[in-house]
Each structure stands twice: as C-alpha cells, then as structure tokens.
UniProtKB/TrEMBL annotation, chain A:
<dbReference type="GO" id="GO:0051539">
    <property type="term" value="F:4 iron, 4 sulfur cluster binding"/>
</dbReference>
<keyword id="KW-0479">Metal-binding</keyword>
<feature type="binding site">
    <location>
        <position position="272"/>
    </location>
    <ligand>
        <name>[2Fe-2S] cluster</name>
    </ligand>
</feature>
<feature type="binding site">
    <location>
        <position position="71"/>
    </location>
    <ligand>
        <name>[4Fe-4S] cluster</name>
    </ligand>
</feature>
<feature type="binding site">
    <location>
        <position position="202"/>
    </location>
    <ligand>
        <name>[2Fe-2S] cluster</name>
    </ligand>
</feature>
<keyword id="KW-0411">Iron-sulfur</keyword>
<dbReference type="GO" id="GO:0051537">
    <property type="term" value="F:2 iron, 2 sulfur cluster binding"/>
</dbReference>
<dbReference type="Pfam" id="PF06968">
    <property type="entry name" value="BATS"/>
</dbReference>
<feature type="binding site">
    <location>
        <position position="67"/>
    </location>
    <ligand>
        <name>[4Fe-4S] cluster</name>
    </ligand>
</feature>
<dbReference type="Pfam" id="PF04055">
    <property type="entry name" value="Radical_SAM"/>
</dbReference>
<dbReference type="InterPro" id="IPR002684">
    <property type="entry name" value="Biotin_synth/BioAB"/>
</dbReference>
<dbReference type="InterPro" id="IPR013785">
    <property type="entry name" value="Aldolase_TIM"/>
</dbReference>
<dbReference type="GO" id="GO:0009102">
    <property type="term" value="P:biotin biosynthetic process"/>
</dbReference>
<dbReference type="InterPro" id="IPR010722">
    <property type="entry name" value="BATS_dom"/>
</dbReference>
<dbReference type="InterPro" id="IPR007197">
    <property type="entry name" value="rSAM"/>
</dbReference>
<keyword id="KW-0004">4Fe-4S</keyword>
<comment type="similarity">
    <text>Belongs to the radical SAM superfamily. Biotin synthase family.</text>
</comment>
C-alpha cells in the first residue's frame, strides 16, 4: 500500500481531515496498479462522511450563448466562432423543465445563464421564473448566473434560491491561460459574498484544460480552502470553434485518479459528476467513479450538449444500492 | 413549416456539405449533441437544450425537436 494511502486512511477516513496539496499530488501520481485501492479508500471516505445517498440534479440554460467573456473551453462565448446561437428560454418552458427534472426524482434544479453577471432583465426573469417553479414543482432551486453584486446576492436569497454555482474552473496559477476577460480573484469575491449570504456554495471546475498534474493538485487544495457545499467536476468536452476545441479528452484513468484525489481532499463535500463524463469515462468509468468518491450526478442533458438518459443513471444507482437523496432530507 | 428532406444538403453539426457518409466524426458526436446547422439551408439554428430533449429553429425551415 503506498504511503499516501496509509496516511489518507488515518487522516481522511479516520479523522475527516482532507489531504493537503502535496497529498493530493501524491494521489494524482499513483501508478495504475494502485488506482483501485485509491478509489476504494475514496469510496469509504464518502460513505463514512457523506453516507450512501446520491444527490440528483437537473440543469437548464435560461439564456444560452452570446456571452461577452472568453473562457477558452466554452461554446457559449460570443467571442469565438462557435455555432451556438444566443437564445432565451421562456418561463412556461422553464417550469416544464423543472417538472421534467423533478419527475426523475431529482431534488435540485439549477438555472444557468451565459453571462458575465446578471443584468436587470435576467434578474427579472429569474424572479418570475423561480416563483413560477416554486408554485408548480416540489424541487430546490439553484442558480448559476456569473459574477454577482452584493445586491444581486441578496435578491437571489430573497427569491428563495438556496444554492449558487460559480465555478473557479481551474487553479489560480492556470486561470489566466483559460480566461482573460476576468480574474480568478473576481470569481472568488462572488463566492465569498454567496457564502456570507447563507446560500450554499457550489464551486468546481473542468479538468483537461491543459493544466499540469501539479496544477490539478493546486486546484483541489484551493477548492478545499473554499470548502464548498458542492463541487461539480467536469471533464473537458472540446467544443468546435473554441480555443480548446482541439485538445485531447482526459484519459479515463486520470479522471478516476482525480475523482479519488478530490474526494480525499474534501471528505464531506457533495462531489458531483457534471459534464464530459460520457466521453471521458463511458459507462464503465461512470460506475467506477460512483464507487470512488462521487456522490452526486447531473441527470439528463447539459446546457448545450446532451447527457445519458436519466433512466440509465437511475438504474445504475439502483444497482449500486445507492439511494437517491430525498427532498425531505435536504430541507 | 418544417420541410422534410430525405437527403440533407448540409451536415447539421459542422455546416459543411453533406456528401454521403462523409462525416463519421460529426455523426458520432451528434449522439451527445443537438444539431447546430439547418440541414436544408446551412443557417445556424437557435437551439434550446432541455433536461429532456432539445429544439432547434431555422428562421426559414422551422423547428425540429429531438
Ligand atoms: S462566463 Fe460562462 S458562459 Fe461566459 S464564456 Fe465563461 S463559461 Fe461561458
Ligand atoms: Zn459534419
Ligand atoms: Zn433552414
């Protein structure tokens, strides 16, 4: 057994204290033959500190495309020659999407907009949309609308948005290679305001942007410092027309190493499968990740790409004897 | 009005001419993506992805759903 896993067994599994950056790096550098042991330990940590439930979420794009920012992985930036066009979702369709999501047994519905930060029109659409969802559907509403002002944070709390997603995307040292129109620190500032407001903080990122393994460890440590309620983990799905459109996808084993390492850095967080798992991990790898530290999934489609049918994920959870977290348990 | 074409003129993923069996990578990618280009006129469509399904609208040829 490699030393780092012995250390993690005592420190993370035993005491609930996450690995630091050096420890995460050691896990990311484990040779293939120790990957099963790392995944098993990460799974044990998840079971001990989070329990067997899996949190299921659906997401929808309220405003797609035409974003003024230049995140190099994103097909919704208006600055690249991506084929994604700008489009707004109307409120009846938004409510219908929430109903479809609730019908899968999901307890979370996240409304996402491709913007630098919300303007008055978007905030009005949110206010009406969240109220319409709450009147019609039993589901918790989360939002992801970019960088916020303090006033907008307060408005979202007032609307009853219980969790806010704002991804740091990658570590601080690599961020300027991925985004030039705003800084990592600006994102951190929004996260700080969200935290102070009492909303749950959801913050993750994308692996496979060209960061080094060391930078992946740096990212895990920075997320652990933020201590978010939820960490969505995406794997780059290279989008045509974006600056990262020709990058290779993350190797399945590297993705699994990262899942184990992020779990060992953050024993109590909700670690969610987000985009890209279909191409990086496939069906078999998806199962390995759920048995290696993941305890939440996005079901159904993403914002501009499609996912597996919700049924396929729900059947897998059933087979793995992992109950879907019920709404009563989240309130 | 939605016009049905049996042989699309344009690849609905990359927008290039759709010659027979010419876009295997696009066809494979399309299993996890909605269409982006109208197969009849090559215009970029307005595409809304929903948790279940998607809709794509060409200003000239109308809406398709999947
Ligand atoms: S801010 Fe969001 S929508 Fe805009 S380019 Fe960046 S990731 Fe895409
Ligand atoms: Zn094509
Ligand atoms: Zn057309």
């Amino acid at each position: 057994m490699p030393e780092i896993l012995d250390q993690a067994r005592t420190q993370v599994l035993g005491d609930g204290v996450g690995l630091d950056q050096a420890g995460v790096l050691a896990v990311l550098n484990l040779p293939d033959e120790h990957l099963p042991a790392a995944l098993q330990l990460a799974h044990d940590v998840r079971m001990r500190w989070c329990g067997p439930e899996v949190e299921v979420e659906g997401i929808v794009s309220l405003k797609t495309g035409g974003c003024p920012e230049d995140c190099h992985f994103c097909s919704q930036s208006g600055l690249f020659t991506s084929p994604v066009r700008s489009v707004w979702l109307d409120i009846p369709s938004l409510v219908e999407a929430a109903k479809q999501t609730a019908a899968t047994g999901a307890t979370e519905f996240c409304i996402v907009a491709a913007v630098r930060g919300p303007d008055a029109r978007l905030m009005k659409q949110m206010r009406e949309g969240v109220a319409a969802i709450k009147a019609a559907v039993d589901i918790q509403v989360a939002a992801s609308l970019g960088m916020l002002t303090k006033e907008q944070v307060d408005d979202l709390v007032d609307m009853g948005v219980h969790r806010y997603n704002h991804n740091l995307e990658t570590c601080r040292s690599y961020f300027p290679n991925v985004v030039t129109t705003h800084s990592w620190e600006e994102r951190w500032e929004t996260l700080r305001m969200v935290r102070d407001s009492g909303m749950e903080v959801c913050c993750g990122g994308i692996l496979g942007l060209g960061e080094t393994v060391e930078q992946r460890a740096e990212f895990a440590a920075q997320l652990a410092e933020l201590n978010p309620h939820e960490v969505p983990l995406n794997f780059l799905n290279p989008r045509p027309g974006t600056p990262l459109g020709d990058r290779p996808v993350v190797e399945g084993k590297d993705a699994l190493r990262a899942i184990a390492a992020f779990r060992l850095a953050m024993p109590r967080t909700i670690l969610r499968y987000a985009g890209g798992r279909e191409i990086t991990l496939g069906d078999l790898g998806t199962r390995d990740g759920l048995l290696g530290g993941i305890n939440a999934v996005i079901v159904g489609n993403y914002l501009t790409t499609l996912g597996r049918p919700a049924n396929a994920d729900l059947e897998l959870l059933n087979e793995l004897k992992m109950p879907v977290k019920a709404l009563s348990a989240t309130l | 009005m939605t016009t049905m074409t049996t042989t699309p003129l344009w690849c609905d993923r990359c927008g290039e001419a759709a010659t027979a069996a010419a876009h295997p990578a696009c066809a494979s990618a399309r299993q996890l993506e909605p269409p982006r280009f109208c197969p009849d006129c090559r215009r970029r469509m307005k595409v809304q992805v929903l948790p279940v399904g998607w809709s794509a609208v060409c200003v000239e040829h109308g809406e398709i759903r999947g």
